[in-house]
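Structure tokens please, single chain.
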Amino acid sequence: GRWALPLPEPDHPVASSTAEGSIGIRNAELTPSYLSQPLHIVSAQGILSPGQTAWTNATITYGKLEAQGTLEYPTLCSAASPCVGHFSLTAPALDLGALQSTLLGTSEGGVLLRQLLDKIDRRSVKWTDLSGTVQVATLTAGKIVVHDAVGALDLGADSIRIRSLNGRVANGTLHLAGIVDRSE
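Here you go.
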């Protein structure tokens, strides 16, 4: 947020200061303008250090989605060390159709990632670049059910890159990679 220190420039260095500590959160709500309903934080542990902010042991719910995860991001960034946050998310089940309805506050069909990116774009949200992993025991996309899904994702201002998505489908395996790119 605005409380974060500005990026240092060679001609205008940032005065040295640090923030350290920890915070525990229970039963809080995060209500960003681009989501149709609040994200409920059941519990999370925040750790502030001079170089990064980390959220660990986080348990969240959003509609029918229940998940556990972590999020770490640098507090100071420069051209030499880009500002990329890292996350991990684990969920017992995820239905992409139900998630689409919950995220967008609609039951309309359509492509989930495209509609989400369109909604975020209308609100002029500045996304932090994120890179991370997702593990879902049962991932449902329409009539396709993927068991033990493990994915690696990069989320940016203009794209969502699926580096890999692997899992078991019927009597076989699934490997998927791709990108949703809004820059064109």
